[in-house]
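[Meeting: bench + compute handoff]

Bench side (C.D.) handed over the final construct sequence. Compute side (W.E.) agreed to return the predicted structure before the next meeting so the bench team could plan truncations. Sequence as handed over:
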Amino acid sequence: MEITKQDLNRTVYVKKDWLSKNIDWYKVDASGMTIGKLAVVIADHLLGKNKAHYMDFWNTGGFVVATNIWKIRRTGNKGLDKKYFSYSGWKGHVKSIDLKTLFAKDPTKIIWFAVRGMLPKNKLRDQRMKMLKMFTGEMTKYHDLPLKEIK
């Protein structure tokens, strides 16, 4: 087969029905990883950047199951310096919580905020965030699925 210049300029699209049938499941063990590095790995697999048919305007990513979230590493003074804010819309109703308190309350929220901030701010972000499953300890569900290990 001879490749011409016209072939090089052609964009290959994968059909949506094929994408919806061929969704991969990935497993990430969070023990010993820092928050940012774990969030980058998860965001790349949610976006589908590890696949040859990546398209930013379609949801080409796969499901990601993150385990052992309570074993993540926090570096520096982030435990007290890093704060997460929520605003109700009313004057003076800004609530803040530091990383140390949020980690004791719900460690999965820390990863949720980090991954959500790394995804593109468009209509697909909520769909992609639903494809993220997190567990503080070992996985109790999804053990019968063919999960691909992410190092």
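W.E. noted at the follow-up: The first strand starts at residue 25 and ends at 29. C.D. will use this when planning the next construct.
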